[in-house]
Automatic annotation (TrEMBL):
Biased composition range(s): Basic and acidic residues: 614-639
Superkingdom of this protein's organism: Eukaryota
Protein name per UniProt: Poly(A)-specific ribonuclease RNA-binding domain-containing protein
Similarity comment: Belongs to the CAF1 family.
Listed Polar residues bias regions: 529-541
Domain Poly(A)-specific ribonuclease RNA-binding per the UniProt entry, residue ranges: 420-497
Biased composition regions of type Low complexity, renumbered to the chain: 559-568
GO CC annotation, single: cytoplasm
Any one biological process term the GO annotation gives: priRNA 3'-end processing
């Protein structure tokens, strides 16, 4: 049964009756997103799981809620279902104006499964937390106490007096005609409406009542209502309307309170997010303390059962290929399982043949149906003939009040125990690893290959959790990799004990200082090499700049060569004109320049990598540059050469010029 804003008030008594007569309830919910920020890792404890999920999901909105009540029919001797599918959308005024996050993949998924977003926004039922409701009620009581007090009249501005008088005349005509009971005054801004409310109430308080009406398009108009003998006074009607508006804003929170107060068994499938949103949206903000969360949850819902957890244990674990809800239903329809017969009154429930997956009401019904099938299978194994469920039976006791944790289930931490201690598996075989950014999963597997297979959970591009399949190798791993300069390995327990994210940041900084290697993927993707630049050796003579006011040297564009020596190509003769512009003379060659043999750099030996793979260093050839400098002073100065005084220096590009147009440094004095 679909429930929206317009039929919620009329449906509320039916919902209350369904909850009261039910043997158990099943729920499901849809959201605008699942989680933001850092996701849960496979090695997180139940407390970490709760903290990350709570912080990452609280800003998303709960937009659809499914409630299915399973009750026993004594005449037919089988279960019946009353199922309700609620569209939920919190509205402002009088409630808070909510801001929320959306996750594109979640909205796309809902749209692909036929979710009606127009119906959600137009007809969604409002809701709020119990604490917000209490504050609004207190505020409304205080505000209504001021209604009977006389307020100082607002002076009507001169430019608005004529408009007010014209409208008052229309109201007077409405009173005298007595043909209609109501009239509307539109095309008025909020200030004019306030002035009209003041004037009409003062002039015609015995004949009419003035109220504000909100149209479907959210525009506001003044409503003038003719008074009758049996009509209440205006303040009383106004107060009643405000309480009705607050009651509508509380909305679906009433249903959540009914479920909680019934103390019935509540069944869900992978229901941690459903419970978090139910508590956080309808009751109060979720506590940051994990112990307080468990106490709060158990107080609101004393009997919870997660079919995802139930199906992950024997005897179902070995008989189910998958415990995804749709696949779980398909498996439970085949031997050795049987689906129980569950009917419904016309228009009040679902059938498993309806095929409305990911509609919250239908998923709630399927969850309850799967629960009945698994319960019946356990009862047959125990030799019990009764089909009807007994929530306090020993059959269900191992599964009660345990919320399934999907991400950590395979690492011996499968649930949150709301009424006892959580499982605390050892993490001695798990390490936090910081590694070069270029590394892939295969590099990590190769690094740990001497210690057997590993499970890798990446945190980001340079860090991951590493779990050893052979747990007895944990101490050997620390000894073997403690002095490895390419990675930083920290035991999981030590890493988690460090406050916040400071530990990870410190490890990254340390890794940035010590990492001098870079892996480069070859075209064949089979081997990697490390290429590094060898530092230039040999002494260099610092260039001597001309004294002021000579201009700064200008860099001359040159063609680079990969050879060990460089010879300047022939250049055209350039002459300076009186305007300072060079002219090129192709016929006159430049004087030849003496070549200087460079000193060969000797590459430094490099140690082999820690993982035993050899690297090939290819030293780059020595580069030689010639930098030319212009001088404007007429007197020629010789450039001192500290290393080699016999080197010939080009002082002029034009041998016939009277002044030194360009002075060049020798090649051994060049720099990049």
């Amino acid at each position: 049964m679909e429930v929206v804003r317009k039929n919620f008030k009329d449906t509320l008594p039916l919902i209350k009756d369904s909850i009261e007569k039910a043997d158990f309830l099943s729920i499901d919910a849809e959201f605008t997103g699942l989680i933001s920020g850092r996701d849960v890792s496979i090695y997180d404890s139940p407390e970490d799981y709760y903290t990350l999920t709570m912080n990452g999901s609280s800003d998303f909105l709960l937009i659809q809620y499914g409630l299915c009540a399973f009750y026993w029919d004594e005449k037919k001797k089988h279960y019946m279902n009353d199922t309700y599918n609620f569209y939920l959308y919190p509205r402002g005024r009088p409630g808070p104006d909510r801001m929320f996050l959306c996750q594109s993949s979640s909205l796309d998924f809902l749209a692909a499964n036929g979710f009606d977003f127009n119906k959600l926004i137009k007809e969604g039922i409002s809701y709020m937390t119990a604490s917000t409701e209490a504050k609004l009620r207190e505020s409304l009581i205080e505000r209504q106490q001021t209604y009977s007090k006389e307020k100082e009249a607002v002076r009507i501005p001169d430019e608005n007096k004529q408009q007010i008088e014209d409208i008052c005349k229309k109201v007077k005509d409405f009173i005298d005609n007595k043909t209609e009971d109501e009239m509307e005054i539109d095309r008025c801004n909020s200030f004019i409406r306030m002035l009209l409310f003041q004037e009409l109430k003062a002039r015609f308080k015995d004949d009419v009542m003035i109220d504000t009406k909100v149209l479907d398009n959210k525009n506001r108009v003044l409503q003038v209502i003719r008074k009758k003998a049996d009509m209440e006074d205006q303040d009383t009607i106004r107060k009643k309307r405000e309480w009705d508006e607050l009651d509508e804003a509380v909305g679906f929170s009433k249903v959540a309170k009914m479920i909680s107060q019934s103390e019935k068994l509540v069944v869900g499938h992978n229901m941690l997010l459903d419970i978090l949103h139910t508590l956080g949206h309808f009751f109060q903000q979720l506590p940051g303390d994990y112990t307080s969360f468990k106490e709060f949850t158990h107080c609101m819902f004393p009997k919870l059962l997660d079919t995802k957890y139930m199906s992950s244990l024997p005897p179902f674990k070995d008989k189910l290929n998958s415990n995804v809800l749709s696949e779980l239903l398909a498996t439970l329809t085949e031997p050795p399982f049987t689906l129980p017969k569950v009917d419904s009154l016309e228009g009040r429930g679902y059938s498993h043949l309806d095929e409305k997956q990911h509609e919250a009401g239908y998923d709630a019904y399927i969850t309850g149906l799967c629960f009945l099938a698994m319960h019946a299978h356990l009862s047959r194994m125990r030799g019990e003939d009764s089909i009807r469920l007994v929530p306090q039976s020993a059959t269900l006791k191992p599964f009660l009040n345990k919320l399934f944790l999907a991400r950590t289930a395979r690492q011996d931490s499968p649930y949150i125990n709301l009424v006892g201690a959580d499982p605390t598996p050892s993490r001695d075989h798990v390490f936090h690893l910081v590694f070069p950014k270029e590394w892939q999963r295969s590099d990590l597997s190769q690094l740990f290959s001497p210690f057997g297979a590993v499970t890798v959970h990446f945190l980001d591009e340079t860090s991951a959790f590493i779990g050893l399949d052979r747990r007895d190798q944990a101490s050997d791993v620390m000894r073997a990799l403690a002095k490895n300069g390419r990675v930083t390995l920290t035991p999981y327990v030590k890493y988690k004990s460090q406050a916040g994210g400071d530990a990870e940041m410190a490890l990254r900084c340390e890794r940035a200082k010590t990492d001098t290697y870079k892996l480069i993927m070859k075209n064949d993707m089979k081997s990697r090499q490390v290429a590094s630049r060898s530092p230039m050796s040999g002494s260099r003579t610092q260039p001597q700049f001309p004294p002021a006011p000579a201009p700064l040297p200008q860099k001359v564009s040159r063609t680079r060569s990969n050879s060990t020596s460089m010879t300047s190509p022939p250049a055209s003769t350039r002459k300076r004109t009186s305007s300072g512009v060079f002219q090129v003379d192709e016929s006159e060659p430049l004087p030849k320049k003496t070549e200087v043999s460079p000193q060969q750099d000797t590459p430094r030996p490099r140690p082999d990598p820690a993982n035993g793979r050899k690297k090939t260093d290819t030293p780059e050839p020595t580069k030689k540059d010639t930098i030319a400098k212009k001088k404007d002073v007429p007197e020629k100065k010789k450039i001192e050469n500290v290393d080699n005084k016999n080197d010939k220096v080009i002082e002029k590009f034009d041998s016939k010029a009277k002044s030194n147009c360009v002075t060049a440094f020798k090649e051994s004095d060049s720099w990049d």
